[in-house]
Amino acid sequence: MNEGLRVRERLGVADAITLANAVVGFAAGVVALSDPHLAARLVLLAAIADALDGIAARTFGGTEVGPLLDSVTDVVSFGATPALLVVGIAGAEWGWLADGIAAAPPAQAAAAVGVGAVFVVFSVLRTALYSEFVGDGENRPGIQNTLGATILAAAYLAGLTWVPGLLAAAAVLSVAMVAPVPYPKLLARDAGILGVVQAAAVLAPLAFGRVLPRFLLVAALGYMFLAPRFYWGE
Predict the structure, then answer these.
(1) Contact, 150 vs 216, CB < 8 A?
(2) What is the pLDDT of residues 64-89, one digit of tens each?
(3) H/E stretch holding 188
């Protein structure tokens, strides 16, 4: 007998936050090709929602569908959307965003779209392999796609707008998602501090000489390069 999807019975508080993350990620993707600055702020907001759904799952309990829902949402908010952000930044800085990518010089369009596609592929690959082969109690190999997206968004908001550098960074972050380097989880205290800074960077990215996204960028890069050896984690 077909029981239906039983959506209300099978979803919990954490799943609702995960779905909100997907909505924010989708909104960021929509505006990435017209207002990359706003899109970068929305990517950071989606990353906050991604952290909050984990807190909600631990507080209120998770559901059977929660991990899969989280993985699917990660691909949207931290795979496809950052890739669109890369294209939007390239168009804005190289001067063809208003006219659309069809008006871009072929080499520039190929570079932006190609790097964006690489980021999507590695984000999908990382999510699938992690979901299938990595247990909850293990250090996670490769950087989280959330971290890769956060670094790109924070870098742009921090004023790093040299397109070749951002494209190179996006390519490196793509490969880093599947690198055989174990990353520990952040301690709740450290995650909370960074969450406050990230929220402030979303609300006022230009305040005090862009100090908030710059601090966030330094912290994210510090975790990326130092955490495997020097951070004890949870």
Answers:
(1) yes
(2) 888 899 999 999 999 999 999 999 99
(3) helix 188-203
